[in-house]
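Human:
I keep going back and forth on a fold encoding question. Comparing notes only helps if you start from a blank page. Show me how you would write down a chain together with its backbone fold. Write it directly below this note and I will take it from there.

Assistant:
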Amino acid sequence: MSLGLRIILDKSAIVGLNNAEIHSLDRYFFQIVPPILLNEICADLSKETKDSSIKNRISSYSYRISGNRGLAFKFREILGNSLIGNEVPMEGKFFPAGERMVRSTDGSVGTIVETIDEDEIIFRWERKDFTEEEKLWAIKWRRIYERPINSKMYRDKIVEAGLNFKIPKDDNEIVEIVDSLLQEKKFQSKLLVLLAKEFNMPLDFQKTVIKRWYSEGNPMINDFAPYAFFCVRANFFWAIGLTNQELFKPNKKDRKNDRKDLEYCYYLPHCEIFASKDNIHKMLVPHLLRSDQSFVNSEELKNDLNKLSEDWNKLSQEEQIKYHQERGFAPPENEKSIVFQLWKKHKGEITKSFPLELLEMKCVDSKLPKEEQVEFTFKEFLQSMSEKLENSKIMSSEEIGELRKTQGEKNPATILKRTTKISKERLLKLYPQLKESDLDEH
């Protein structure tokens, strides 16, 4: 499975793509699917009584997230860990849901990533098969997420801290005002209160966080919990921006989406590219990204994916196979192409596709005495390693913590097994060298 360019698309981007463009997306990108996107798709079930075509639309949306993809780890877990000192890197690394670290009987460490239940849900939605529980949940979830962001609460905390506030005139002033406030030493305790309220943190957990903060000498939240600080900064962008209704006017008629749009931002530190056509995203997301990340207008991305799809489909199967062998998942060289520009910025090096012939390559274990060495294929080796992982013991959080103390930033895992359910149709489009018979063997 290609990992491609790591991209997050919000719902506005997903619904704008047709299947041909999605196949093109599969070819050059690895789509990170945050839980908010799954929830937004399912929440459309609440419209079923008013819109008879809603099941067909949810089915098509589900198809668009069932290709070359991975499901993101819930931001709330990352946020909670950040506040108690278990920080994760915010350098564009993807943190997948369903990841577990295991240790085999020989002491080696591996990682398994699988989201069996979630994958099955996506494929069930594709078949227009929904449970009654999902329909009820959709109504409840939409009611919760359509609550407006309480910008007054943010203004009140500013006043309580004895700080001045002015209504911003544009996005640059939003950033200037927010960053100035967040660097105020006397405002740091207020940030912890805002985090607790916005994310509905249990009282016992709040006490644990406050105790840690005091024990470390009341540090700046940016140093104390970098990811939590990122989230509260994003919240402030929205809350302060909402004080100027003219500034957010393009979306004024639909303020119900503010909370949903904001949640996508919590996943930004763990991707390379974010795509949306939402006006508030266009305005504020670029200010949340690092210099090594990119924001893409999804309408421009759609146009380029469409052109790439048309060009790809003009090739014969032999030409597609040759292209894949030579360039792997790198797009064609075209400086006018947004996809090529993104690839050039974030990858820039061609990784050729894995030749299927290598699976039949003969190997031996050179660590064994010559008389004990037995030939096996590389395919058999991979299968044995997969079985080894499956039969390994899941490591406890304490074991993982101790391991990370000795390993530091270095990943202690020597092998990774990632299982993602993808249809034959998608795989055949993604890998032109595959035949249906190849897939029937697995």
About this structure: The longest helix spans residues 226-241. The chain has a mean pLDDT of 89. The CA atoms of residues 112 and 417 lie 5 Å apart. DSSP finds 22 helices and eleven strands in the chain.
